[in-house]
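Figure S4 source data
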Amino acid sequence: MNKTIKSPEDIDWEYFWEEKLKSQENTFKKDWNKEAPHFAKRVKQDEYMENLFNKMRIDSELTAIDLGCGEGSITIPLSKLVKNVTAVDSSEKMLEILEEKINKENIENITIINETIEDVSIEKVKKHDIVLASRSFNGIVPIIEAIKKINEIANKYVYITLFGPNNWKFERDFYKSIGKNNDHFAPYYYLFNILVSMGINPNVENLEIQKKRSYESVHDAMENGKWNLDSFNEDEKIKLRSYLKKNLIINEDGRLEHPDDKADWVLIWWKKE
């Protein structure tokens, strides 16, 4: 980037967003088909859903689309609050789990589409009152093109949740100890500035997650914590086990936890003009 920056308006936030993502090692990227069963278990641990819904404008007459819906931890409860939901995800395994849940609960107002967020368009999914990208937008490139498309899909509101500044606090110390960088995503305020540069004036709120993650054992913490074990060699796995044994403490329920091991999510949302 050779251009001299003379004022904040000269900053190309899209460039910095994408440069940050380029720093990701291939080994850090997750296979979401493989991750699906672990993800389904992990997302149930805190008050994310309740806090998110409390900040959204939801009623039974609205339609919604859940981009990056995963196995349906948000899709299914959302479907009980709105007229209908279109669930979109790139992982076939995630969608298989979602379809099993839909069939088990005899839900009739969810439509499933196997597609990436980047390739979603109004021609493929039509317009919806609410567009939700829950925990699925941090790795999107090209970012401005994706925002334009989801903004076109939305009739009323767009809601996006991104990693907050403390989301990787517990994991960061371990990665640093083994000489690895896990800081591969742009901070949420990059997206805020991108939106402002596009003429969108978003609201920013922290979802204020308080509940810490907890585990049955060190093995459970390795398998269901936020560790991409496929990127670790055997020595690093041994070091991780040692790190968890040393740092996790037993809570009043007899489970293992750490004060810094909890989610931190920021909600960025706007109302369509």
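Figure S5 source data
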Amino acid sequence: MPKKIFSVILSLFLIFTPVFSAFAYEPTGIELTAESVLLVCMNTGETVYAKAEDAKVYPASITKIMVVTLILESPIYDPEAKIAMNEEAQKLILGTGSVCSNLKVGEEIRQIDLLYYVLMSSCGDCAYLAALTYGGTVENFVDMMNAKAQELGLKNTHYQNPVGLHDDDHYTTARDTYVLTTYALKNETFKTACAKSRYEVPETNMYNHTRRLSTTNFLLDNSTNYFYNYATGVKTGFTTEAGRCLVSTATRRGNDGIDYTYMCILFHCDNKPGVKRYEFSESKNLFNWAFGNFVIKEIGDTKNPVAGAEVRLSSKTDTVMAYLENGFQSLLPKDADDSTIVIEPHLKSDSVRAPISKGQILGTADIKYANEVIGTVNLVSHEDIEKSTVLAVMDATKNFFTSKFMKIVYVTVVGIILLLIVWILLLNRKKKTRSSRKIKYVPYKNGKDDR
């Protein structure tokens, strides 16, 4: 149960943590035949180079990354427990052209050995055996694969079989593959298995010698011309429709002491048998380009303020300073001009009312390189600021007398006063009118008779 809870939490983390793409860097001096490419710095999650990363592609045996993920998360998975090859698995793979193990029907191997047969040697019969063992039926296991894809937020991925056999409705994208592989690598067993070039399968009930499995990823194999000393995984794939495919990782320590890790995903590289394995050469070239041209730079710190806001209702200070909540790291070209890196603050308001608590979010800051936003960090207070009771009372009083309610009261009172004035004026006018009607005019006489 704890394992399942951890899986759900990790899945949610991955779903809401998209691949971060700051710039569309263009690799120089590198020719790529791959139709879909994604190169990501796993230290920061930033995309270094992308080409048709959201285009639908056929994954071929890259599919088995999902198969092994489900094996390791199965409640019945026990690395030392035995499992026997069965006739149904062998019949299902017959005639497909997939790589097969030389296991016989009824031959028992450990579950950890089955995992290596699927991941390292890419055996199709073993992938079907895994589906039957951990899903009950192939159909149910494929449903589990699609459910897991949905759980991880792989919106452009759909599976039709556990092997990677071609089907128009069996597809993925380079971006979805990055999310899936990043998730799979959180499991130490997966991480260890995909990094090995050789693996010894112990003797079985039907074979009294050890068997040696070899990786299909030539970047890990020092007996090939494609060996890459910094490679650490992960999985190959090929069908005629999918072309040559490769998901690989590589880690190299930089001059700054940082271990840089990149994931390179290539789909549909050219396939010219006997000429060149482009998926390996192109991945190697992209890794070398990334290792040679980029560094992780610290941008800003948490000790120096980047903005300030007016403080209201405090008698001790009239300004609160805003600091980056966390230091920010970004993968940038080695020759990046520091003067083009800018921290642009955006406070929620120009003024903040006390009390203010340490760590309170005051706004955000955009981190910009060459006028492009490469990240956003919260701005917080580094101190507690108390509220002044006197200033608070005065402010409350002011707010009361300037509140909407009081404005209505003021308007009402003024209205009543105006009505009273009008009423009084009208009343006085009526009185004057009545008085003028009672006065009778008497002509003035001087005592003489004019007649």
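DSSP finds eleven helices and 20 strands in the chain. The first strand starts at residue 20 and ends at 21.
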